[in-house]
């Protein structure tokens, strides 16, 4: 229980709530996280949380917004640091893996939201994030084709699906191994295989 959260300004209280949810998602099934558990982690009452969020879905929406902002910011920084499309794709891959390693509960939350049968604001946020992510990949594929690094016949939609799916596969393998650090150790070798599949033969 964190007593320092009891007298936070509104924006810091919202951020502390988001961080508590992200931490809890790394420790348990995200669908089982209750507002009582969030309040206990923060060291506040549930009433204190509901002064800043109207309901649990509002909390989840804020978490998804945080994830989207942080992940895409990391990716842009990684991509912009490289001078070639293939190097940028590798940096994007590694930045995503590093983000998950630091916040292992996030993939569970994203998948959990997508599995919800009803149309909710958090679910729409995840769908929007995936769309933005795919658009960024497609831009790099186009740049790679233009400069001759990427096979000009590459199916961009399939390549983007495989890129995202490969990261999800690493998440699954880390869960099986019970070692989130496994992702970071094997990611360079995994990307090397992916890269061979999209690289131009010339």
TrEMBL record:
Domain of life: Bacteria
Domain HTH tetR-type: 11-71
InterPro entries registered for this protein in UniProt: Homeodomain-like_sf, HTH-type_TetR-like_transc_reg, HTH_TetR, Tet_transcr_reg_TetR-rel_C_sf, Tscrpt_reg_YsiA_C
DNA-binding region positions on the chain: 34-53
Biological classification of the source: Bacteria, Pseudomonadati, Thermodesulfobacteriota, Desulfobacteria, Desulfobacterales
Record key words, sorted: DNA-binding, Transcription, Transcription regulation
Organism, scientific name: Desulfobacter postgatei 2ac9
Name of protein: Transcriptional regulator
KW Acyltransferase (keyword) present: no
Pfam families the UniProt entry points to: TetR_C_4, TetR_N
Cited PROSITE patterns: HTH_TETR_2
Molecular-function GO term, any one: DNA-binding transcription factor activity
């Amino acid at each position: 229980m964190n007593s320092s959260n009891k007298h936070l300004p509104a924006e810091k209280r919202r951020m502390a709530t988001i961080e508590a949810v992200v931490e809890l998602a790394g420790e348990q099934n995200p669908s089982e996280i209750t507002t009582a558990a969030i309040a206990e982690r923060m060291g506040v009452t549930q009433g204190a949380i509901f002064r800043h969020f109207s309901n649990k879905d509002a909390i989840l929406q804020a978490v998804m917004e945080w994830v989207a902002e942080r992940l895409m910011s990391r990716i842009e920084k990684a991509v912009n640091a490289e001078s070639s499309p293939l190097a940028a794709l590798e940096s994007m891959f590694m930045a995503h893996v590093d983000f998950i390693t630091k916040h292992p509960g996030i993939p569970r939350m994203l998948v959990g939201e997508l599995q919800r049968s009803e149309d909710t604001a958090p679910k729409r946020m995840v769908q929007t994030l995936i769309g933005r992510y795919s658009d960024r990949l497609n831009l790099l594929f186009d740049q790679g084709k233009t400069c001759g690094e990427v096979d000009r016949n590459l199916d961009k939609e399939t390549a983007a699906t495989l890129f995202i799916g490969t990261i999800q596969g690493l998440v699954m393998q880390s869960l099986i191994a019970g070692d989130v650090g496994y992702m970071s150790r094997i990611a360079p070798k995994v990307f090397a295989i992916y890269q061979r599949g999209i690289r131009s033969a010339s």
